[in-house]
Every structure is written in structure tokens, then in C-alpha cells.
């Protein structure tokens, strides 16, 4: 603060030294004089302990202390005389025209050094309140005495000549220190000059974190950061070092090692540290952020795991050199599942690929397929349906807790047979050999002969020569008819492998020329023709097997006879009629007529598919059966099938189509 003389207020509380200092700072040329009432009671030094380098100079200033009693002090300022009156520190300033020359009461100050060879002390000629201290080229300590001669008041300043520090540097200035460990800062501090005689003063900003000894040894107390300051003795040179007291993690565990979670759900994961107050940061990481993300609280010890997509992600939490892991498996539950195609038909022996369509599309549930009847159709793990026999099954796709179904009807679509007749004869033998795996209920079969696979089904057709006439035939069934000669295939077999029937008529004729149907099929002219010389060459050429056929010889429901035939007509029973027209014990229904019955008595409906036709005439025709009616017609009748598929009887004189069956 600087003030002019007229800015000093009357009655202001001040000291002589303070006022004079203010005025001098304002640039006044001041001459200080004392009168006889003035009394020096002390000397105020600006420094009582001084350190200085060798061969250097320093200024020591002093101010007289006049105490609190009334003191008259005269000052000449710019040619004017002022009387400054102090009375118990209260100040009064008066302008007086007095001859200051008659007042010569300046303080008489004497300065002495107790060792001028070490430090020389002299009053400044320009300013008597300044003392010039000049050190020599020696180290040591001296006492500088300042004495006011009139009052005898003295003051002493100690001057120490030494090699002073010019710079203090920490290298490095940031240090990690483990709790409980220590570090000697003297190993990282650089002092200039190296031969300084000053002592380094150490201090810690936060001693609860780390303390530092007088020698500069820092001890880590608790986790945190503190600033260590190194300074010279008077604090004019300083340097700082940041100490991070760390508490290293020695163990880390998670409360869960595995998490299963649905998409869009969350799960809390908590880490436990050893020691719990470790200062090392906790770092969380998700291996796949498209599967699981992490949000931590401010402590870093609790993490919210959010499932964002299906899959597996490893969560890693790291603290220092310690790691812990948790595997997160994100599931997407199925809420609905469809199957494509939905329903349909499959031919026996064929396959159809079904595809499960779960919702949502990214579900993690696996599809498990099952069939309601594995004897009709099986289904693979991939949804491939294999049709085994005729029937209807439900295929189910199980996905999580939901399921979808598809209804499959197994059918058989007949086809034209492309194999040669010689191949068919071999296949028939192999089929016969495979009984009972292939039996009269078989609709579709595959056999292997010499590395070749042959596929046949009931209803398959082929055109062959019978007595040099092209006749279309179809398969009635497999292993249905008993062989007369069980060594027909060169081994002991029971059944003929394949049973055929003619679709085309060999001819049109009457059943018999007799006047009566007595004796039934066994006595009929048609049987005699088919199994006699008329077709003997055909029987041999086609390798037709002789089989046992049952027929009603009398008009009684319970009495049947047997015949050994190469060619034969079907019975009502074999063509599937369960009514009371003919004997019901004339053999077993063929599989073909089980699949495609002529007549459904239960509903009085007809199916014209099995009807016969000639090669030239495509319309359906009536055709002979080998059964004789026992409850309808006369003794001059045999059973027949009409063009509509209905079972009736025909008079012996009628000319109907002849479409025999045979076995190979």
C-alpha cells in the first residue's frame, strides 16, 4: 500500500515504521529526525536468519521501533516540515515552520560482524536502513549485530554461508507405491549443485495416504494419492512428486460362473475382491457385444448383463493381474412354430423334406422331430419324412415349449414297370425268399440283386405277350399265393413272389358250356382252357408258377375245394366282396383290391378304377370271377363284376371278359 501525506488520517492507528514505509513507497524524500521525547525501544529486522552463497551479497533492512508511548517525530518532505505525533499508536500530523536543523536527533546505528573474514556487514550509504552483507569464499556462520548507540537497543541476525541449492528435480515425478512398502526418494531426486550444504525438507500433503521421513523415505499407508514436496531450507526451491499408493488385487471371484438368460432380459453379476479395498481398477469385458453387453455401477463391482442376441459370450472381469470369467448363454425362446409344407401326400418309399419355421427366427431352441406312427412314416433329425406304408401320420416339430404339426398321407402311385420279364422273374424269387419281411400286406418293396436295386409296388403295370397278344397286367400283391411246388425257386419257399392280374381281356367267352355250375371253378371250361394246352407255351415262356386256389364247388357258404392253377380267375373274396353272394372262404383279399376296392358295401359306392378293359376298347366291361353264387341266381350262373364295379351273377350263357391272374 502506498499513500501520500495528506491521505493519512488524524487519529489513525499506525506505527511510525508503517507510516514512514508508506511515505517512502510513495516516492517522498524523507529525512527522519528525533526530538528529545523520542525513544527507540527496539530494532525490527526483515530477516533474522539469512543463508547466502559464498562470494555473494545480500541486503538486510531494519526499522526502528519507538513503542506505544507519545513520540514526536519530525519529517521533512519536499521542503516542508511535518511533525508526526504518535500517542499509543494514534497518529497526528501537523505542518510546522520549524528549523529542522536545530533538531538533530537521527538514530545512530552501528553494524558489526563477529567474523569479517566470513561475512562483512556495512550500512548502505544511500539508504541507512539497509545493511549490505558481503560473504567471502568460506563456509561458516556469523552473527551480525545491529545496535542503536543512543538507546543501546540491539538486534542480531544470523548469517550462514553455504552452498545453496539452485534446482530440485524428481525423476520420475509419478510413482506407484504398494501399501505397506516404502521408497527412498533420494534415489530419484536430483539436486543442483550436487555439493549443496542445504538440507532437503520433505513433506507429505496427505499423511493418511503416505508419510515421508526427514531422510526422504516414503511409506504407503492407505490407497490414494498424495503429493510429496522436497524444498531447500528456506523454501525458495521446491519440487513435487506424486505418490500413488496402490493396493494390488490378490484374488478375484464372480458370484456366477455360468448364466443362462433369455434375449432382452438382464442379470446381475457381482465381483468380490481380495483385498476388498484394492486400488486397482476393475475392468469388465464382453467377448461378444452382439450377444451380451455390460453396464457397471460407480463402484465397478456390480455389473448388469443385458442379453441382446442369441449365442454365447464370455464375460471377463480384470483387476490388476487377477481375472475371473463367466459364460453367458443367451437363449431366444420359441413362441410359435410352423411347418412347411403343411400336410400333403408322399408315395410309399419316397421322402419329403419338411422345414420347421420357428418364431422368432433367431430362436436358440433346437427342433426335434417325431412321428405319430413310425411304421407308416419316419422322420429324421433334419425333418426328412420317409414313407414306409400306406396310412396317415402326424409329423410334429417340437421347438422349446411349443410345437407345430403336419399331417402326411402315405399313398402309392402306380407306375409302368420298365424291368425286363427275366428281371421280374428274378425279383419274384428274391421277394419269395424275403418272406415274411415281404408279405401279402406289403404295398411297396425294394430288393437288391447282384448290386442292382429293383422297386415294385402294388398296382404297377406292364404290357406283355400272352399267346402273341399284347396284354396289360398289374401287380395284385406279394407273397400272397401258396406254391404247389415249394422248390419252384430252387429252394424251399411257401409263397409265389408276385401275383399279377390281366387288365386287358384275353378273350370274351362263356364260363362253361355245361348246363350247370356244379363243380364250380374246378369244372369250368375257362379253367381248363387257361391251364391246358391253349396257354401252355405262355406258361412256360413267362415262367408262371402253379399255385393253390380255393373255390366253392357247391352252393354252400362253408364248403370249398382247391385247384392247382397257373392261370386263374379272381374270387369275390380276393376282389373284396364280403357280402353273401358267394363263398367267403375262397382265399384272401389281394392288396390291390384293399387299396382300390371295386365296391364299398357300407356306403353303396363304386370305384371304377379296377375295372377291366381291352386294349382297343377303353370303356369298362363286365368280367368273370371264379366264385359261384350260393344265395342268388340259379345253378346256371357264376359271379361277375359289372362295369360299375358291382358284384353280381351272370348266366352261364353270357359272354364276359376273361382277365385271369397268375404268379411268377
Description:
The chain is mainly beta. The protein folds into five domains: 5-159, no CATH class; 167-246, Immunoglobulin-like, CATH 2.60.40; 256-274 and 282-331, Sandwich (Immunoglobulin-like); 336-411, Immunoglobulin-like; 421-664, no CATH class. The strands form 17 sheets. A four-stranded antiparallel sheet has the order 1-5-6-7, with helices on one face. Strands 2-4-10-9 form a four-stranded antiparallel sheet, with no helix packed on it. Strands 3-12-11-8 form a four-stranded mixed sheet, with no helix packed on it. Strand 18 (210-212) and strand 19 (217-220) form a beta hairpin.
Topology:
Layout: H1 16-25, E1 30-34, E2 42-45, E3 49-52, E4 57-65, E5 71-77, E6 80-87, E7 90-95, E8 109-113, E9 119-123, E10 130-135, E11 140-148, E12 154-161, E13 167-170, E14 174-178, E15 182-184, E16 189-192, E17 201-204, E18 210-212, E19 217-220, E20 224-231, E21 238-246, E22 251-254, E23 258-262, E24 266-274, E25 282-286, E26 292-296, E27 302-307, E28 311-319, E29 322-331, E30 336-340, E31 344-347, E32 351-353, E33 355-359, E34 367-371, E35 377-379, E36 384-387, E37 391-399, E38 402-411, H2 421-433, E39 444-449, E40 452-457, E41 461-466, E42 469-478, E43 498-502, E44 507-509, H3 525-531, H4 536-541, E45 547-551, E46 561-565, H5 591-595, E47 599-600, E48 605-606, E49 623-624, E50 637-641, E51 647-651, E52 656-658, E53 661-663
Parallel strand pairs: 3-12, 14-21, 23-29, 31-38
Antiparallel strand pairs: 1-5, 2-4, 4-10, 5-6, 6-7, 8-11, 9-10, 11-12, 13-16, 15-19, 17-20, 18-19, 20-21, 22-24, 24-27, 25-28, 26-27, 28-29, 30-33, 32-36, 34-37, 35-36, 37-38, 39-40, 41-42, 42-43, 43-53, 44-52, 45-46, 47-48, 49-50, 50-51
Amino acid at each position: 500500500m502506498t499513500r501520500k501525506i495528506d491521505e493519512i488520517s488524524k487519529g489513525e492507528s499506525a506505527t511510525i515504521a508503517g507510516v514512514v514505509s508508506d511515505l517512502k513507497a510513495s516516492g517522498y524524500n524523507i529525512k527522519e529526525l528525533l526530538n528529545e521525547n523520542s525513544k527507540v525501544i527496539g530494532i525490527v529486522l526483515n530477516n533474522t536468519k539469512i543463508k547466502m552463497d559464498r562470494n555473494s551479497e545480500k541486503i538486510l533492512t531494519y526499522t526502528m521501533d519507538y513503542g506505544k508511548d507519545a513520540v514526536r517525530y519530525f519529517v521533512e518532505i519536499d521542503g516542508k516540515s511535518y511533525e508526526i505525533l504518535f500517542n499509543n499508536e494514534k497518529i497526528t500530523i501537523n505542518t510546522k515552520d520549524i528549523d529542522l536543523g536545530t533538531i538533530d536527533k537521527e538514530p545512530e546505528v552501528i553494524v558489526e560482524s563477529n567474523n569479517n573474514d566470513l561475512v562483512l556487514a556495512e550500512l548502505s550509504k544511500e539508504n541507512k536502513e539497509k545493511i549490505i552483507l558481503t560473504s567471502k569464499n568460506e563456509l561458516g556462520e556469523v552473527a551480525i549485530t545491529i545496535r542503536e548507540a543512543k538507546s543501546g537497543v540491539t538486534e542480531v541476525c544470523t548469517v550462514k554461508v553455504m552452498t545453496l541449492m539452485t534446482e530440485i528435480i524428481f525423476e520420475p515425478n509419478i510413482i506407484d507405491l504398494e501399501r505397506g512398502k516404502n521408497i527412498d526418494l533420494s534415489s530419484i531426486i536430483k539436486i543442483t549443485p550436487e555439493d549443496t550444504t542445504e538440507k532437503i525438507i520433505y513433506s507429505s500433503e496427505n499423511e493418511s495416504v503416505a508419510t515421508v521421513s526427514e531422510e526422504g523415505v516414503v511409506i504407503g499407508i492407505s490407497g490414494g494419492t498424495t503429493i510429496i514436496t522436497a524444498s531447500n531450507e528456506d523454501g525458495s526451491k521446491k519440487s513435487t512428486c506424486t505418490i500413488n499408493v496402490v493396493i494390488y488385487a490378490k484374488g478375484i471371484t464372480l458370484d456366477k460362473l455360468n448364466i443362462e438368460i433369455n434375449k432382452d432380459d438382464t442379470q446381475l453379476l457381482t465381483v468380490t475382491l481380495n483385498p476388498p479395498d484394492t486400488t486397482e481398477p476393475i475392468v469388465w469385458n464382453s467377448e461378444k457385444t452382439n450377444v451380451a453387453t455390460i453396464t457397471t455401477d460407480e463402484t465397478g463391482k456390480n455389473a448388469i448383463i443385458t442379453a441382446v442376441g442369441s449365442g454365447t459370450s464370455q464375460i471377463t472381469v480384470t483387476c490388476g493381474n487377477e481375472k475371473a470369467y463367466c459364460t453367458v448363454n443367451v437363449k431366444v425362446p420359441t413362441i410359435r412354430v410352423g411347418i412347411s409344407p403343411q400336410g400333403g401326400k408322399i408315395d410309399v418309399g419316397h421322402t419329403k423334406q419338411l422345414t420347421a419355421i420357428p418364431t422368432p427366427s433367431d430362436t436358440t431352441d433346437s427342433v426335434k422331430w417325431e412321428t405319430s406312427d413310425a411304421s407308416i412314416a419316419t422322420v429324421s433329425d433334419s425333418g426328412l419324412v420317409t414313407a414306409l406304408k400306406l396310412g396317415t401320420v402326424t409329423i410334429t416339430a417340437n421347438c422349446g415349449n411349443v410345437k407345430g404339426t403336419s399331417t402326411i398321407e402315405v399313398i402309392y402311385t402306380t407306375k409302368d414297370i420298365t424291368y425286363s420279364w427275366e428281371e421280374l422273374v428274378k425279383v419274384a424269387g428274391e421277394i419269395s425268399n424275403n418272406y415274411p419281411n415281404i408279405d401279402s400286406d406289403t404295398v411297396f418293396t425294394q430288393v437288391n440283386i447282384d448290386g442292382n436295386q429293383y422297386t415294385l409296388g402294388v398296382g404297377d403295370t406292364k404290357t406283355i405277350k400272352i399267346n402273341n397278344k399284347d396284354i396289360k397286367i398289374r401287380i395284385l400283391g406279394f407273397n400272397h399265393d401258396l406254391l404247389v411246388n415249394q422248390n419252384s425257386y430252387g429252394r424251399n419257399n411257401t409263397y409265389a413272389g408276385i401275383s399279377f392280374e390281366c387288365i386287358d381281356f384275353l378273350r370274351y367267352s362263356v364260363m362253361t358250356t355245361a348246363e350247370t355250375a356244379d363243380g364250380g371253378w374246378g369244372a369250368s371250361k375257362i379253367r381248363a382252357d387257361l391251364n391246358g394246352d391253349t396257354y401252355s407255351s405262355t406258361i412256360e415262356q413267362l415262367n408262371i408258377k402253379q399255385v393253390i386256389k380255393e373255390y366253392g364247388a357247391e352252393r354252400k357258404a362253408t364248403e370249398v375245394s382247391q385247384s392247382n392253377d397257373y392261370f386263374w380267375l379272381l374270387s369275390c373274396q380276393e376282389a373284396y366282396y364280403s357280402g353273401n353272394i358267394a363263398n367267403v372262404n375262397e382265399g384272401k383279399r389281394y392288396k390291390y383290391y384293399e387299396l382300390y376296392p371295386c365296391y364299398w358295401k357300407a356306403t353303396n359306392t363304386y370305384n371304377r378304377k379296377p375295372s377291366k378293359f381291352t386294349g382297343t376298347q377303353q370303356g369298362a366291361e363286365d368280367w368273370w370271377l371264379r366264385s359261384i353264387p350260393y344265395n342268388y341266381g340259379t345253378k346256371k350262373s357264376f359271379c361277375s363284376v359289372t362295369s360299375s364295379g358291382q358284384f353280381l351273377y351272370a348266366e352261364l350263357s353270357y359272354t364276359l371278359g376273361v382277365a385271369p391272374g397268375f404268379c411268377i
